[in-house]
Amino acid sequence: MYRISLITGDGIGPEISDAVIDVLQTINDNLGLKIELKKLEAGDTTLRKTGRALPDSTLETIKKSDACLKAPVGESAADVIVVLRRTLDLYANIRPAKSYPNMPALGENIDLVIVRENTEDLYTGMEFDIGDSAVALRTISEKASKRIAKYAFKTATQRNKQRRVTCVHKSNVMRKTDGLFARSCQEISNDYPDIAFEQMYVDACAMNLIRQPGSFDVIVTTNLFGDILSDEAAQVVGGLGMAPTANIGDNFALFEPVHGAAFDIAGKHAANPSSFILSAKMMFEWLGMKNNDDRCYAVAKKIEDAVYGVVRDGTKTKDIGGNKTTKEFAQQVISKII
Ligand code: ATP
Questions:
Q1: How does strand 92-98 pair with strand 35-40?
Q2: Quick check: pTM over 0.70?
């Protein structure tokens, strides 16, 4: 049995959480993989109610679970996800962008993954006012750079697709910080002679993601660049509604949609739950790997095939060109999982 904690979040969070809960229940009831689900509170609503965006009880329950699913939270995102990433040392942020059929995408046969360093860069909150200026500190360490580079090379090896890692940085301008990042990746590449290694400036990468997205396999990059490029990559394959992400550490992992709380469509039953359902798919792959459990891999494949089949058949939410509600879409996915 797997104990899964689930933060239901803000905005469209509770709606897409309901969809994922139904999917997990279906897996539990029909596919022989037992799941104990704990619904947890965190985010703006929790902050208003309890004075804390991430209550201790939520954190403790997450620590006791096998993996965590997290719906988006609103304004308090930094107090929830940044704290969770740091506390649980979830250093690798994995954001795949894959072509689905029948989708308003910029190309076909896109299958890339962005491996984003998750713990440092400009996201450590070290910002100061100095006179009439504001200053942010950018930290890049050799240890974190090598750790994420290793993760990227392992990913390229396991995926066995184009067997290439593209290291994205801007070392011509940020010579110290990105210079260190690029050198660290280059060094790790020596341990993986079967995987091709290339370097690309972030501006060129942003352009090439539009121009030839099918040419990428694994992109490894720093925190801020990874944040921006993965939203771009999500749009290239059909939009944020289809984009899952994993935050992975050595012992624990948390899975969430790339998108935010999308307050503009909250409560309108219009949210695309695919991003969160596909996050659950990534969770089962990770559980399969961690526990050497083939059943989890089988469940992950079932979920992905179901989402693929649903959009191929033309069942879509508004963001990807259809008119189905969140629940109608999720029910179609569930009918293909059984
Ligand atoms: P954040 O800063 O937390 O990323 P944001 O408000 O800038 O949040 P998102 O919430 O990620 O941006 O979403 C941007 C827009 O994309 C939303 O306003 C919404 O219209 C659309 N969107 C995002 N997620 C979905 C989804 N799952 N289904 C449908 N539309 C979505």
A1: unpaired
A2: yes
